[in-house]
Amino acid sequence: MQKEKEISEEIKITIRKYKVIVMSSEGSTYSEIEKQTSFQIGTISKLINKFYEYGDVLHDRRIENKRPSALTEEAKQMIEETLAQNNRTTIKELQTMISEECGLNISKSTINNYEKEIGEFKYPQIVPILSEKNQQLRLEYCIDHQYDKFTNVIFSDESSFQVFRQTKKIFVMNGEYTQQIGKPNPNFSIMVWGIHLIL
Fold first, then answer.
1. What's the whole-model pTM score?
2. By C-alpha distance, which of 34, 61, 41, 40 is closest to 50?
3. Whose CB has fewer CB within 10 Å in the chain, the N or C terminal residue?
């Protein structure tokens, strides 16, 4: 005996929608249809009206009424290429570029919506600039002192209050990593130093 395939919940709902039309055409009342399909009377009315207006209970008015994008394929390609070359390009700059090169008067919100489709603006990740020599020295120090108890040792630490900060976001395409930029040294900062002694 062949096992019947399971019907998904979405298909079951679709069958119930068409059942509304069949029962209505056979003269069933809304109350009778409600008992058989579990749809509320308001939903039943909408399904019947949709069927007589569009010929299908699954018709999606949102697709029919959706306006085409004001951005042409040329304009979209220009936005992607420009942001790939310079991830700090502003919407105003893109708007001016599209107007001059494509002859289109595109709103900032339209450009912003397309940017959200292809990526997002993020702050660059600030990472310390360490030479290979300093990296190796730090690794060797950790290896040499990994079993130390650090008794009678003064620990010190410092905190930097920086004038230099990265406050401008960059555009990152979907699936790409946030760009890393080096932190200059000196970087116009004030250092606060503290110590702690373990006895």
1. 0.38
2. 61
3. N
